[in-house]
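Predict the 3D structure for this chain.
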Amino acid sequence: MADDRKGIMANFKIRAATRKDVALLTDIIRSSFLDVAERFGLTKENCPKHASNCMVDWIEKDMDRGVTYFILEEEGQASGSVALERVSGELCYLERLAVLPDRRRNGLGRTLVDLVLTEANCNGAKRLNIGTIAEQSELGNWYRKIGFVETETKEFTHLPFRVRFMSYEIKPNCIKSDSAKV
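Done. Predicted structure below.
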């Protein structure tokens, strides 16, 4: 499928990840979150569960509990990924949205979010939630432009930052695009 966001044409496909993709997913996620970790001073010691420290077993455990991962490929090369977790009949979580730094600002992140919104909708969800670093204001603004609204900000003793929780109310209208082969 072609995407013409921001005037940049990209040939891409999105596919559901399999167990064979666990190492690839781990690499995409770690690479994509490294700049965030550096910006906020996150290390294995002060934030071991940050995505910049992603390990193969994290992805395997996610898949074991039913989390679905998707990989976005451009001309056969992985450029990004995202995960969708169904929490209940009406609630899903968007997790680990990752676009490689040299592929950002081309509409790929938005494309992955749109896919997750469609998948959640087609699975009967009425709401899609996400958590981000509260101080990462540009990311919060990006999600707001998509239609997410902030629901709360919380501090956790095990994290060196506050977490902003956001939610997107899904309007039932299940039409799957052909960009994702799921």
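The radius of gyration is 16 Å.
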